[in-house]
Specification:
By secondary structure, this protein is an alpha+beta fold. It contains 17 helices and nine strands. The longest helix has 29 residues. The model has no long low-confidence stretch (mean pLDDT 92).
Length: 426
Amino acid sequence: MVFSEYLLHFAWQFRLYEGLVQRCAGGEELRILSPGLPNQHAGPDFSAAKIGVSGLVWVGDVEIHIRSSDWLLHGHQHDPAYDTVILHVVYEHDLDIYRNDGTLLPVLVLKDLLSAEFLSRYEQMILSIDAFPCAAHFGNVPSFIVSHFLSGLMVERLEMKADQLLEKVALMKGDWDEAFYQLLAKSFGFKVNEVPFELLAGVLPQKMLLKHLGFPLQIEALVFGQAGFLSGTFKDPYPLSLQKEYRYLKKKYALGPIDVSTWKFLRMRPQNFPTRRLAQFCGFIMQSRALFSRFLEIDNVQECVQLLSGIPVQPYWVHHYHFQKETKKSSVKFGLPAVYHLLINVVCVQLYAYGKHMGQPFLMERALSFLEQMPPEKNAVTRLYEECGMVVARASDSQGLLQLNKFYCRQKKCLNCGIGVKILNK
């Protein structure tokens, strides 16, 4: 049997042992009136537990171990915080433990009290090689429980991203526009090229670009030059003009580009090549001076969609997917999936973080509302759960699923998962 100490925590908290009246290892009658509250800090595992031992009612702490001897292994005999423990809950009893006042600590042994069905179900989930641990049991979980848990995970994910952004804003001494710009750049990488886009934003601050608004060629020269794409030999007039402009600006600002080899092209469709994404990024920068402030003013998700869908792109990219690599005419318009990607990962995160920081809950609510109104992301993770019967109807669902997959399913944290708890607690 494969299990952790936390499984015993779970069994104790949810009373998954058989019977309300037990016997301690020493033979005393034990009544479990309340398991107490899980302790998230240092000290015994549960506090404010209430038990009856041989007719006497005790209120205090409970400590849980795989074996009784773990008490000594963990050094609890030297910690006064454990003098308040009224019950030692273990899987196996291999050693009598005495408190510092010399009294014998009552012990409840769970080994023969946990149902075989519960242990078997847990082992199946932990050892599962399915797409996610509870895939075989998922269909038995009521949809309202899944929906409720995913809603919480969506907020958890947004909180996590907002806190990361607030740390970045603090490092930038409160410059929200620069933080928005850097988050936007990272999201333009669409996972595969997140890192080079992030590096690009680091060597090309928004303030430098803003000096050249109204001069598209200079914006494009700075972006493609700092991205490392203007060091070659060109014949086409457009890249030649970019190269000439960049050489001047590079010398003027003492710039250093990132390594062009950082960009990834392999196994990508030409319309998603980083060169095209950079062209779209240029269009976005040229479209608005106060990017962040503009999105703060919009309270309608469709207006955000229209703003992002109308990004102007240099006509050269209609017939090219790379410098001097011509292709048949294709659209360079920002597609709806890409628009929603930026709204989910940039606009909603920034709104939520700013609202949280400034004490403006209506902005946080707007971010949540936007996620409820947008269609779900379609990716390998969402498909895994859809194949097992999960209904993914909105972006809030897909965001919750991404959080579930990364921080619960992949880490086999079934005992921390609302869905896993329901399956195990049948």
